[in-house]
UniProtKB/TrEMBL annotation:
<protein>
    <recommendedName>
        <fullName>Bifunctional protein FolD</fullName>
        <ecNumber>1.5.1.5</ecNumber>
        <ecNumber>3.5.4.9</ecNumber>
    </recommendedName>
</protein>
<keyword id="KW-0486">Methionine biosynthesis</keyword>
<keyword id="KW-0554">One-carbon metabolism</keyword>
<dbReference type="GO" id="GO:0009086">
    <property type="term" value="P:methionine biosynthetic process"/>
</dbReference>
<feature type="domain" description="Tetrahydrofolate dehydrogenase/cyclohydrolase NAD(P)-binding">
    <location>
        <begin position="138"/>
        <end position="283"/>
    </location>
</feature>
<dbReference type="GO" id="GO:0005829">
    <property type="term" value="C:cytosol"/>
</dbReference>
<keyword id="KW-0521">NADP</keyword>
<comment type="subunit">
    <text>Homodimer.</text>
</comment>
<keyword id="KW-0560">Oxidoreductase</keyword>
<keyword id="KW-0378">Hydrolase</keyword>
<feature type="binding site">
    <location>
        <begin position="164"/>
        <end position="166"/>
    </location>
    <ligand>
        <name>NADP(+)</name>
    </ligand>
</feature>
<dbReference type="InterPro" id="IPR020867">
    <property type="entry name" value="THF_DH/CycHdrlase_CS"/>
</dbReference>
<dbReference type="Pfam" id="PF00763">
    <property type="entry name" value="THF_DHG_CYH"/>
</dbReference>
<comment type="function">
    <text>Catalyzes the oxidation of 5,10-methylenetetrahydrofolate to 5,10-methenyltetrahydrofolate and then the hydrolysis of 5,10-methenyltetrahydrofolate to 10-formyltetrahydrofolate.</text>
</comment>
<dbReference type="Pfam" id="PF02882">
    <property type="entry name" value="THF_DHG_CYH_C"/>
</dbReference>
<feature type="binding site">
    <location>
        <position position="230"/>
    </location>
    <ligand>
        <name>NADP(+)</name>
    </ligand>
</feature>
<keyword id="KW-0511">Multifunctional enzyme</keyword>
Length: 291
């Protein structure tokens, strides 16, 4: 059984991205720039935004942070996004989620210019993904597929089950697996006999946001298990980060499995950097970058 080391994979990817950034700088004197918008003071979001800024600069890109107060209006956020759309120096825009309840994330996200939408969440990029057209792909699903391919380089013809149907992960992940020629089942809270459905999976992806929901006995012998869940729980008097899969029982049956932490999570930021370089190269007419 292989424990898939997402942290190491993400580090390697980030080195490759830094190389691509160096090439762009030396050949065209351009420094790709990523703007991140944070609204409010959610502690986890603050950490993610800080880590994105550090990773962006480490890759040699420019990081721009905009922090708005929790009571900023929807119109304030939309006008900031419009300003960033119009800024020629900005290649990528990301609005950290979740937004405060009084702000419609759907409206804000769809104000982002699709070519700068490095989260791949606009309707335009979601449509491109479904149609198999070139766009920007959501980071966590992209990272999940990269990890699955790191242990089985040809996914063609395999049965993939995605548990969870969120816009951020479940739906785009299913599309990406379909693009790899998997036979994809999208399962969710209303799926009947969920355990049986999961046991059919050669690639089992859990993205439901429910701690340890997927039990070991749901895993087909030898399956690749991709755990997208990041749940903070109190256990034995400590705060722990655990996935949607019961790791200890699942690893007894899986052929390969991602841990939490250290699995899919680190790939989210690495794929964000990748999307930023790709967006910069496309916007500025530099041709395709291999990352
Ligand atoms: N606009 C977006 N908002 C959010 C996204 C997103 O992709 N775009 N995803 C999540 C949060 N997120 C990035 O924003 C994110 C989550 C987890 C990790 C990560 O590296 N996790 C580590 C553990 C970190 C820890 O100790 O807390 C791991 O799993 O090993 C990076 C980024 C919601 N919002």
């Amino acid at each position: 059984m292989t424990i898939i080391d997402g942290k190491a994979f993400a580090l390697k990817l980030r080195e490759k991205i830094a190389g691509a950034v160096r090439d762009i700088k030396s050949s065209c004197n351009i420094q790709p720039a990523l703007a991140v918008v944070l609204v409010g003071e959610d502690p986890a979001s603050q950490v993610y935004v800080r880590n994105k800024g550090i990773a962006t600069e480490k890759a040699g890109m420019r990081s721009i942070e905009h922090k708005l107060a929790a009571d900023a209006s929807e119109d304030d956020v939309v006008s900031l996004v419009k300003k960033l759309n119009a800024d020629e120096e900005v290649d990528g825009i990301l609005v950290q989620l979740p937004l405060p309840d009084h702000i419609s994330s759907e409206r804000v996200i769809n104000e982002i210019h699709p070519d700068k939408d490095v989260d791949g969440l606009t309707e335009a990029n979601a449509g491109r993904l479904i149609l198999g057209k070139t766009g920007l792909v959501p980071c966590t699903p992209q990272g999940s597929v990269m990890l699955a391919k790191s242990v089985r380089d040809n996914l063609s013809g395999l049965n993939a089950v995605v548990v969870g149907r969120s816009i951020l992960v479940g739906k785009p992940l299913a599309m990406l697996l379909l693009a790899e020629n998997c036979t994809v089942t999208m399962a969710h809270s209303r799926t009947k006999n969920l355990d049986e459905v999961c046991r059919e999976a050669d690639i089992l992806c859990a993205a439901v946001g429910r701690p340890r929901m997927v039990e070991g006995r749901w895993v087909k012998e030898g399956a690749t298990v991709i755990d997208v869940g990041i749940n903070r729980i109190e256990e034995d008097g400590k705060t722990r980060l655990i996935g949607d899969v019961d790791f200890d029982s699942a690893k007894e049956r899986a052929g390969a499995i991602t841990p939490v932490p250290g699995g899919v999570g680190p790939m989210t930021i690495a794929c964000l950097l990748r999307n930023t370089v790709i967006a910069a190269a496309r916007r500025r007419g530099l041709g395709a970058v291999e990352v």
